[in-house]
Specification:
Shape: extended
Mean pLDDT: 90
Oligomer: single chain
Largest sheet: 5 strands, antiparallel
Number of domains: 1
Number of helices: 1
Radius of gyration: 23 Å
Strand order of the largest sheet: 8-7-4-9-10
Helix content: under 10%
Low-confidence stretches: none
Number of strands: 10
Structural class: mainly beta
Order of helices and strands: HEEEEEEEEEE
Strand content: 25-35%
Bound molecules: zinc ion
Length: 174
């Protein structure tokens, strides 16, 4: 009987699945941002008290001037309307980072300049509620459509999409 080992041994495939769950605080500012969406169906951002920059979601430290906004932060309501600054369609499924589920969407996703009383718009990526891409264009106005209150979870998906706002200048007579 030979005791020689073959030079290569087959390695059986191994599959491991280790789910883990975490709970963590969103922080003072993002906590209020999420609660306002869930409970009041509105977008609350902050305007930097040093330079007037609009922050959506709100931030303690300004992205532009690096000024701190910990004390007496200037909360402002932003939206519910926005201007489309760019958009693209989804042609393949994608992973929802909230729960790692695979999602697909018939709606295009847009870069939205959300109305703000600050010196600039707040910026968000979100769905545009129009599946006919020939009707979507940069500069068009859209309005946030929130889920019914009982379905909201304090996530960006509390907004279903942003529906196009009819422009009175181009829809006269209909
Ligand atoms: Zn600033």
């Amino acid at each position: 009987m030979s005791t020689e080992q073959p030079e290569t041994l087959p390695v059986p495939p191994t599959r491991l699945r280790t789910p883990f769950f975490m709970e963590y605080p969103l922080g003072l500012f993002n906590g209020r941002f999420s609660r306002e969406m869930r409970d009041n169906g509105r977008l609350m951002g902050m305007v930097c008290r040093h330079c007037g920059f609009s922050m959506l979601p709100p931030q303690a430290v300004c992205s532009v001037c690096h000024g701190e906004n910990f004390e007496d932060p200037q909360w402002v309501e932003m939206g519910p309307e926005a201007t489309v600054a760019g958009f693209m369609s989804f042609n393949m499924p994608f992973i929802d980072t909230n729960d790692l589920s695979v999602q697909s969407s018939a709606y295009p996703v847009g870069v939205l300049m959300v109305d703000s009383p600050g010196r600039n718009a707040g910026f968000l990526w979100h769905y545009i509620g129009e599946t006919d891409l020939s009707k979507v264009h940069n500069g068009m106005r859209v309005r946030a459509v929130f889920r019914p209150e009982a379905e909201r979870k304090g996530l960006m998906t509390d907004i279903l999409y942003w529906e196009p706002v009819r422009d009175p200048a181009t829809t006269q007579g209909d």
